[in-house]
Amino acid sequence: xxxxxxxxxxxxxxxxxxxxxxxxxxxxxxxxxxxxxxxxxxxxxxxxxxxxxxxxxxxxxxxxxxxxxxxxxxxxxxxxxxxxxxxxxxxxxxxxxxxxxxxxxxxxxxxxxxxxxxxxxxxxxxxxxxxxxxxxxxxxxxxxxxxxxxxxxxxxxxxxxxxxxxxxxxxxxxxxxxxxxxxxxxxxxxxxxxxxxxxxxxxxxxxxxxxxxxxxxxxxxxxxxxxxxxxxxxxxxxxxxxxxxxxxxxxxxxxxxxxxxxxxxxxxxxxxxxxxxxxxxxxxxxxxxxxxxxxxxxxxxxxxxxxxxxxxxxxxxxxxxxxxxxxxxxxxxxxxxxxxxxxxxxxxxxxxxxxxxxxxxxxxxxxxxxxxxxxxxxxxxxxxxxxxxxxxxxxxxxxxxxxxxxxxxxxxxxxxxxxxxxxxxxxxxxxxxxxxxxxxxxxxxxxxxxxxxxxxxxxxxxxxxxxxxxxxxxxxxxxxxxxxxxxxxxx
Length: 491
Ligand code: ADP
Hints:
By secondary structure, the chain is α/β, with parallel strands linked by helices. Helix content is 39%, strand content 21%. The strands form 6 sheets. Strands 15-18-19-14-13-20-21 form a 7-stranded mixed sheet, sandwiched between helices. Strands 10-9-8-11-12-22 form a 6-stranded mixed sheet, sandwiched between helices. A 3-stranded mixed sheet has the order 1-5-4, with no helix packed on it. The chain is globular and about 80 Å long. Adenosine-5'-diphosphate (ADP) binds at residues 153-156, 180, 182-183, 217-218, 221, 237-238, 241, 244-245.
């Protein structure tokens, strides 16, 4: 759907070697507003040759950036954080225009990312090794050095956070980066960082950003995986794409960090505060219209409070406003594309045909899908088996905490989870049994802080973004020795 607009269509080039450049073949593609369908920007449409130029620029910039004093690295990130803060209105507007992000989610992303930049500024001063006692009299060290060029592939959904975290720690640790944003958020999940980091004083070539048209991701991904100077790939996106990338990277013996899909359970125990549990469940399921890898998809409630919880959650769900994400009281903005909307619709319709009950929502409104609660979703429905990126959650009633845990773990995914209970000890015991990289006791599954070890298990991927774990992900630990004088050899 296209509407009248006064918004001018911006033109964006790619960012390679510190320059804003057209794609080698001069192509460009349309960047669309998911709510209105308007073209918001024309963006350079790169091919494999552009990716190669970007990797070469990153590779040339690596030695000097690695050796740059930590104070310089720190200054860049502190300045970038201030610059982002000073542009919050403009950047928030872009998140809405490119990804349909409502006001609250945009503000959360902005706050998270300036915090992330301030935290990684300190990484420049993280100790880079240890001295290890040697039985043969050597002066032995475990020394870390940056890996070289890092390829970063980011998605559109939490465009600002997920692109920022794909570049921040790698750069702060002395690597150089080629970022490939999603074709659906080339500016707010990509090119924006070229503007901010150039102004913050990052030297040319240290960060490069290659944008591509829909359907052209693989060529860029292949170049990142196959070019020898790229030593790590980090990827956030679907499990299907992550699996392909990991296979290709495996053939090149390259390490990857993968944060993939989720089918996140929210367990509500009988001792929960029902009002709190209802608010937590609605937030966990419907924030950013359920297009978050951590969104609560499966709500498991213990029978003694099930009737009250379900009726209150259904009532709250029906009251969530779907519509224009520019209006500050909108909770449910548009789904990212028409095909995403079609997929959600077809999964809900199929579950209903197979016997699921609709407790709230269940239909599309323009480019939005209503916040939807389903009950009795059959196990053989597509919705039950696959992550569905939309504002739809399935509720099931359970007879015990053990049954809840068993149902929570009955998925190939393992990203995030929540257990609402007023008994923290019991919650902690159950947390140990949940097969997920993230468990929140007395909270829902959606949440992030830059210093936390964020990541999944099973089909949700491996490796960790955030916290000190990034030091292992984005540096090489090497054994370096010094022999004083000489020692005898056996022959
Ligand atoms: P989502 O469904 O969340 O958009 P995708 O896995 O399709 O997840 O997309 C996440 C990121 O992966 C995007 O930047 C997209 O362009 C990129 N991507 C998609 N296919 C490939 C591929 N074959 N190789 C490399 N990157 C890809």
